[in-house]
Design goal:
Butyryl-CoA Dehydrogenase, subunit A, domain 3, seven-stranded mixed beta sheet, 52% helix, alpha+beta, Nuclear Transport Factor 2, Chain: A
Length: 282
């Protein structure tokens, strides 16, 4: 086994770990731990390097997720995944959906093993015998875990607009409406059941709970628009496989917005403000 053969699978291993953990920093740590185990493994002991490495990364991620879940119970305010910003344009496909902030946030409903089983089966296409060997469960148990995960997610999984064009139109409409300070214009772009999830991690100003409902969310953004901000700028970028908005104040990244929309109106607005989660992008 060589370092080159490990590097061939590095992006795939990160894809598994990031979807498991919702944190790029923790996913990097997991991939590094897998590399150390790879170095210690006898060269003739691994017949299928990719499968072996994926198994190691998944097991490490399950253990790390158990630790993270305990920490997230003490997190200040709503929690959102650490965003990934890419130079590649979003394609709006199935893999992009499995990377979206909304999808990763929904995965938090699952237990660590349910999450692993669901991702390995639904996103990465593993068979049940392979999944059972990875997570240390029977095939029957894995089928049950997958079924439970599907039910947990289907109960709260509206069908968002996935085309990059629709996402950018939504973000531009959002910018124009909030920039106008007109409460009626802001309300017009929001669904009645809209939710705003603002993640400041207790380190910057953010809503301390999920704001729900058109009137409440509109009033929040009208208040934001009334505050003068010097040297405000923005740009569109690919954020977790979708079109996102990078808002900068005085040249410093301040907030990453991603908006999930249905029929041209915002359903879920995710605003990542925690500086720790923006550091990788900056």
């Amino acid at each position: 086994m060589t370092d080159a053969s490990f590097d061939n699978h590095r992006a795939y291993l990160f894809a598994i770990a990031y979807r498991m953990l919702g944190s790029a920093a923790d996913a990097d740590d997991i991939v590094q731990d897998a590399w150390l185990r790879w170095q210690r493994e006898p060269r003739d002991a691994v017949e299928k390097p990719k499968a072996w490495l994926a198994s190691v990364v998944t097991r490490l991620s399950i253990d790390r997720l158990r630790e993270l879940k305990r920490r997230r119970e003490e997190y200040v305010g709503p929690w959102l995944p650490e965003p990934l910003v890419s130079a590649a344009p979003p394609d709006g496909g199935e893999l992009a959906e499995s990377l979206s902030l909304a999808f990763l946030t929904m995965l938090e409903r699952l237990t660590p093993v349910e999450r692993a089983v669901f991702l390995l089966r639904q996103v990465f296409g593993y068979d049940y015998p392979e999944i059972a060997a990875i997570v240390g469960k029977t095939e029957a148990n894995c089928r049950q875990q997958f079924s439970r995960a599907q039910k947990h997610l289907s109960d709260a999984r509206p069908r968002f607009e996935t085309s990059p064009q629709a996402q950018q139109r939504m973000l531009q409409g959002f910018l124009d409406a909030v920039g106008s300070g007109d409460i009626a214009r802001i309300e017009a772009i929001l669904r009645e059941d809209v939710e705003l999830i603002s993640d400041g991690g207790g380190k910057v100003a953010a809503a301390m709970r999920v704001l729900k409902g058109r009137e409440i969310v509109a009033k929040f953004f009208k208040g934001v628009a009334s505050r003068p901000l010097a040297e405000l700028s923005y740009e569109f970028a690919a954020v977790n496989g979708q079109v996102g908005l990078l808002l900068k104040v005085a040249g410093r990244l301040d907030t990453i917005f991603v908006i999930e929309s249905i029929d041209g109106q915002a359903h879920t607005i995710s605003a990542v403000r925690n500086p720790d989660k923006l550091a990788r992008v900056s």
